[in-house]
Every structure is written in C-alpha cells, then in structure tokens.
Write a structure and sequence with these properties.
CATH superfamily of the largest domain in chain B: Thiamin diphosphate (ThDP)-binding fold, Pyr/PP domains
Number of helices of chain B: 15
Shape of chain A: globular
Largest sheet of chain B: 7 strands, mixed
Strand content of chain B: 15-25%
Number of strands of chain B: 18
Oligomer: heterodimer
Structural class of chain A: alpha/beta
Helix content of chain A: 25-40%
Helix content of chain B: 40-55%
Largest interface: A-B, 48 and 49 residues
Strand order of the largest sheet of chain B: 3-2-4-5-7-6-15
CATH topology of the largest domain in chain B: Rossmann fold
CATH class of chain A: Alpha Beta
Shape of chain B: globular
Distance between the termini of chain B: 64 Å
Distance between the termini of chain A: 15 Å
Radius of gyration of chain A: 18 Å
Number of helices of chain A: 12
CATH class of the largest domain in chain B: Alpha Beta
CATH architecture of the largest domain in chain B: 3-Layer(aba) Sandwich
C-alpha cells in the first residue's frame, strides 16, 4: 500500500474551482489524476463535476476533458476508446466519471452495455447519494430514510441499489469501492485499475456538506465515520476475487465497527429516522458486514 | 503538420480501395448495401449502431467488411441508438472518421445526442433510412423521422435512388469535414433500402483522393488540454489570458452560419465530384422540365424520381408541368429555389410527413421562401404515403391535373389553400 508521503507531488487540478465549500469531490479527483499521472482524457456528464471543471473559457483541470449528455458518459467513453484505438493512441487512459444519478439511474443502460462489451475504460462513480447538482433530489443511491427535496416529509422509503454487485455481475475485470477520506486507498485502486484491460469500475463515496447537512469542515471525518461504522465498506474484486481493503480490512481483522448512530447523528439528513428504523438499519449493517467478512477468503493473509 | 495530424493521415487511408465483392464498376445492390459500400470507400474508422428495421442491413454489411478484415475499423455494437450516437461523438472527438445508421424511433431516441453532435461541430455521417414514427407501430416508409429532427443543426440530404446513396455518403464526409457539421443521408425505407438497382461503384483510389484525411478541430492532446463543451454562459467571457471568448449565443451564431455557408459547399463539392466520377447529384436540388413550366411539383427522396413519370404523363396531356427534386433540406436553399420558382403559377408540394397542426414541412418552407422573394405563386400542400401507403404515379397525375384546372377556373377555395390535401387517404 502506498503511503501518503509516496504519492506524487504533481498536481493536475488548478487552485480554486467552482465546487461548494467542503465538497469531497475535489479531494477524490485530485488523487485519481495523481494516480493516472495526468495521462488521461476525462469524460463527464451533467453533474457536480461539470461545475467543478469550470465555465467556458476557464477550466480548473489540466487534463483533456470531454463533456457528455447526462445518460451518455459510458457511450462517450466507449467512443473515445474506439477513436483513440483507431488512431493507434492507446497510451491514453479514458476516465469516465459520473455521479450516482449518472450511474445508478439515467446512466445505467449505457454503462451496462459498455460493461457487457468490456469497453476499455475506467468508470468512477462518485456517489454523494442524491442529485446534489440540481438541489438534493433522491436518487437510486439515496439511503432509506433520508430526507431530500423530493422526499421532503417522510424521507426515502426505498433502499438503494447495490451498484458494486450490479457491476460485478457483469463479470468485468475490476470492481472496487473507496472513499475520499482514504486517499491512499483511492490512489492504489486507481493505479491498479489503470493497468487492467477492460471496463474497470470504482465506486467512490463522496460526502456532500450541503446535501448531507453537516459543517463543511467535517467532510473527511464524515467519510471516515461512514467506513468505521460499516455504512460504506472498502473492497475490491479483481478477476472475481473479493477482498476487503484499507480501513475496512483492518476493522475486519480484529477491529470493531462503531455504532451506526455515530455516522447518522453527525448529519441532519437522517434526522427523520426513529428508534425502530435505527435498530433495523444497525441490524442490516451488521448482517451485511458479516457477509463481506465471509465472502473475503483472503482475510487470514 | 503536427505529429498528431500526421498520425491521422497515416491511419485514415490504410483500408482496401474497394471491398473484394464490390470492385469498381456496375453492381446490382439494395440501398442499404449502397450506403455500406459508400461508408467503406470513405474509409470509416469507427462504426457504432443499434439494429432497427429497415436500417439493420447497412451495419450488418459493414460488420461483415470489418470481421473479414477488409475494413480496418472498430465496430461497436451498442445497446441503444442513444449510445450509438454517443460512441460516434466520442470517436469523432478522438479524431476518427465515424459512421452510423438509424431511422424512426431510433433517430428520435438519439435526439439529444443529435444536438450534442452538431453543437460539438463533429463531421459525423449517418444514414437515416426514412421510416414512419410510432405510435401506432409501423416499420414502413415515410419521412416523419428525419423531418422531426429538422432543427437539430444537421445537414440533411435526400437521395432519389441507390446510386445517389453511395455518392451522397462519400460527398457527405467531404462536406461534413469541410464545414465541421454532421450530415444525415436520408433515403426511403424499403422503397430504396430493400430494393435492388444497378449502381456504379466508384474506384476507391479515386475516393481516397477526393476525401482527404479527417483533421479534428480540437484534438485530444495531453500537452494542450482543452475542456470541450463546458457550461457556457450567455454572454462572452474573458479567458485566463484576458481574451474575450464567445458566449453561448455566439457559438450558436457560428453553428448557424456554417450551416448556411454549407449551401455553397454542397454545390461546389457536387461539381468536383462530377469532374472526378462523372455524376452530379444536382447540388442543392434538381429540376426536370421546369424551364417552360407553369406548374411545378416539389418533393424529396424516391418519390421525386417517380414523379418524373408523372411529369411525362401530364406533358402528353399538354399540362405545362415540371418537377423540383429537393436534395438539401437543411440547409434550405430558399434563395436558389425562389429563383427556380419565379414565374411559376402553381406549386404543388408533396410531403411524406406533417408538421402536425399545420401542413407538410416542405410546403411550409417553400411558402416562406416565395414570400421572402415577393413571389405570389399559389402553393398547395399535399400529404401522401404516410406509414408506407402506396403512392401511384396516376394518383399524383390526377391530382395535379385536377388542381391545375381548378387553378385556371379560379376554383381553388380557402379549404384547398389553407389545409393539406391528403392523397389516397380513405378516411
């Protein structure tokens, strides 16, 4: 595992961008581009990342960037790969990066098609668990019980999809989850994914101060709490072999999950949950955690 | 020439001159085969498509060329038309020459991508095998699909027969790459797509000369990174060097101007094509016996080929009639058409589509062109052939004869002038 001091000092994001104060996305993108050493072309649909990238004619990023229609990220990436291949320029990594709406919801058809064809690009879903760019509407990634602007009174009544499992079911060579609060975990996964042929899917948890309703200074802490309580689990599936990684692996190897309430009570979006819902959620988190531990045959290593 | 562009030149022209099965010369092929051979000869590097009737044989033929190793191109069998256009956009931005084909609901499903392609100023060429729009379902021919995408900022060219399809596909790349706009090559489903006709397949070596390698306007270059199509404000804005750059409206003005300028380019390229290959497609539109005509029929696609028979039939009956066959629908050749239609007394437009709630789109555009030029000819809108309803030459001839007589007897009522006349509608 790369230590934080070993991460290259080169920067591919310019100082100052249009994202909100405390946005976790900038942290994530910074380490992704470091891992790719800037040798990539990005494609991005309409989302928070479009805002971060800047408005014409000023850009905050120093790698080629191609904007796409909302449902079209995976198709645009496929086209860039095909075009670059036709011109024998396969040294450039194509990085597709969409939010949870552009991945779970409007983007899933194109992404599923690209995964079935094992198109040769890296897809990063940066998951802030709702449509944050349009003002916090619920998405297929929003957790049950969360208040959003389209679930304003009683909170979301449906559970989110498990996008990691959905992508794994496509038999692609690499699936991983990570979180911006663990930059070395993110860095290592992108670096590994860079050298794998085919569709690589990385699920990046990105806390969002405005949508999750916490103090912008707490973004990294919130992401850490997500992992330490088991709300987010860091893992990778490489050629079908599942292994927990980073903080989640250490927790599985003799650590203990914190109570889920520590994560939930730090954000106002969960304020609606009553005691029975909290108990139900805690039970679900433990059940899923045990399943992950059972699934990981490498834990004794 | 930059290293990137040199790479492109080296990589664009490395396909066989002609498919083995289609050496230069006469072949009897369907319209769909004609389109596929045209794409082959143009040296397409990426093909992305989704099956839809009656378009599917175009890409089946190309897939065969690619799998047999004759055409060194990437074939991407996407999961939807939306993605087909998305892949074409991505590959075209990367610098590859791309081709796709679709029709009807597939074209409609691409709608936002069509705007993205033209707004990105990408020289994508797409065959649109004209088919009726559902609901209710119909897989048969009319032109509602491409007409509904009239305002997507593409060049739209209609083909009269299978020879025009192969020639138009080749010309389309030349036009597209000159003005940086996508071109929709429209031809009638089944009537052309599934009907065999003799065509002359051009010599691929000549096509290679006619069609220089594609050089993208904004290459993907890591040493010169560009953010392509970011959020663009309404007003011009300073860049980091203090230079004032276009706002959204200036970009749209340039897009529109390029489309208008392509009127001239379409004509010039057709003339050049004739010099090399011996065939002209008429530039923006072609005329048949219009010189001394008082009545003119105007339509587009295979129907206009059939209408030459109608003209001959009516000429035998001493009706002073001629035909204008539209090739370029967008950009619309309003000025040239108004010159061609000057002194014509009666104009009969036949649309295989409708602007629902008004009249046929060709009729509407002809009327506005005449108004701009102060020509006060009488224009009558006919609607025919929707959802594959057969159109017979004698039906058109009867209508034309009838309305010419009514015109001469001053019997054209408001009902005729302000509404569309439906040919062979049994309601």
């Amino acid at each position: 595992m790369t230590s934080i001091l070993e991460i290259p000092a080169d920067e591919y994001m310019l100082p100052g961008n249009r994202s909100c104060a405390g946005c976790g996305l900038g942290i994530g993108l910074r380490y992704i581009l470091k891992a790719l050493e800037g040798k990539c072309v990005m494609t991005v649909p309409a989302c928070c990342l479009t805002v971060l990238g800047g408005m014409y004619p000023i850009s905050s990023i120093t790698v080629p960037w191609v904007n796409s229609v909302f449902p079209g990220t995976a198709a645009m990436a496929t086209g860039l790969v095909a075009g670059l291949k036709a011109l024998k320029r396969e040294d450039i990594t194509v990085l597709a990066m969409a939010g949870d709406g552009g991945t779970y919801d409007i983007g899933i058809q194109g992404l599923s098609g690209a995964a079935e064809r094992n198109a040769n690009f890296l897809f990063v879903c940066y998951d802030n668990e709702a449509y944050m760019n349009t003002g916090t509407q619920r998405s297929g990634a929003t957790p049950k019980g969360v208040k959003t602007t389209t679930t304003p009174i009683i909170g979301k009544i449906h559970s989110p999809k498990d996008m990691g499992q959905i992508m794994d079911a496509h038999n692609i060579p690499y699936v991983a989850t990570t979180c911006i609060s663990y930059p070395t975990d993110l860095y290592d996964k992108v670096k590994k994914a860079k050298d794998i042929y085919g569709l690589r899917y990385i699920h990046l948890c990105v806390p969002c101060p405005s949508g999750w309703q916490y103090d912008p200074k707490d973004t990294v802490t919130i992401g850490q709490l997500a992992v330490e309580t088991g709300a987010i689990v860091l893992y990778e599936i490489e050629n079908g072999i599942f292994r927990l990684t980073g903080r989640s692996r250490r927790l599985a190897n003799g650590g203990k999950l914190k109570p889920i309430t520590e994560y939930l009570s730090a954000q106002k979006r969960f304020a609606n949950l009553d005691t029975s819902s909290l108990d139900e959620l805690q039970e679900y988190i433990h059940k899923r955690w045990n399943e992950f531990i059972t699934k990981d045959k490498t834990l004794t290593e | 020439m930059t290293v990137l562009n040199q790479q492109r030149v080296n990589n664009t022209h490395n396909h066989l001159s002609n498919p083995k099965t289609y050496p230069p010369g006469q072949h009897v092929v369907t319209g769909n085969q004609s389109a596929a051979i045209g794409a082959f000869l143009s040296g397409v590097q990426v093909v992305a498509a989704y099956p839809i009737t009656p378009q599917s044989p175009v890409v089946e033929e190309l897939a065969k060329f690619i799998e047999e190793g004759e055409l060194p191109a990437e074939f991407v069998p996407v999961e939807s038309e939306h993605s087909a256009m998305g892949v074409c956009i991505g590959a075209s931005i990367a610098g590859a020459r791309v081709f796709t084909a679709t029709c009807a609901n597939g074209l409609a499903y691409m709608c936002e991508q069509l705007h993205w392609a033209s707004g990105s100023r990408l020289p994508i060429v797409m065959a649109c095998v004209n088919r009726a729009m559902a609901a209710p379902w119909s897989v048969l021919n009319d032109q509602q699909d491409s007409m509904s995408q009239r305002d997507a900022g593409w060049i739209q060219l209609f083909c009269k027969d299978n020879q025009e399809i192969i020639d138009t596909v080749i010309q389309a790349y030349r036009i597209a790459e000159k003005v940086y706009l996508p071109v929709m090559v429209c031809y009638d489903g089944y009537i052309l797509s599934h009907t065999v006709m003799p065509i002359e397949v051009p010599d691929g070596n000549k096509v290679k000369k006619f069609l220089p390698p594609y050089i993208p306007h904004t290459p993907i270059d890591i040493s010169k990174p560009v953010n392509i199509n970011p959020v663009t404000l309404a007003d011009p804005r300073l860049n980091a060097d203090g230079v004032l750059c276009h706002g959204y409206m200036e970009h749209k003005y340039l897009h529109h101007q390029s489309l208008r300028n392509s009127l001239k380019i379409i004509e010039e390229i057709d003339i050049e094509y004739k010099d090399i290959f011996g065939r002209s497609l008429g530039g923006l539109f072609s005329e048949y016996k219009t010189d001394d005509a008082d009545v003119v029929i105007i339509c587009a696609g295979s129907l206009s080929k059939m209408c030459t028979l109608v003209i001959d039939m009516l000429r035998e009956q001493n009706v002073p009639i001629g035909l204008v066959s539209l090739r370029a629908y967008r950009p619309f050749p309003n000025q040239k058409l108004s010159v061609a239609l000057k002194n014509k007394k009666l104009i009969l437009t036949i649309d295989k589509s409708l602007s629902y709630g008004y009249q046929g789109p060709i009729c509407i555009d002809i009327k506005s062109s005449l108004f701009e030029s102060g020509i006060s000819s009488t224009v009558i809108s006919f609607v025919a052939g929707l959802g594959g309803r057969d159109i017979k030459p004698y039906e058109i001839a009867e209508k034309a004869y009838d309305y010419w007589n009514k015109f001469n007897k001053k019997e054209l009522t408001n009902e005729i002038i302000y509404e569309s006349q439906w040919i062979n509608c049994k309601y």
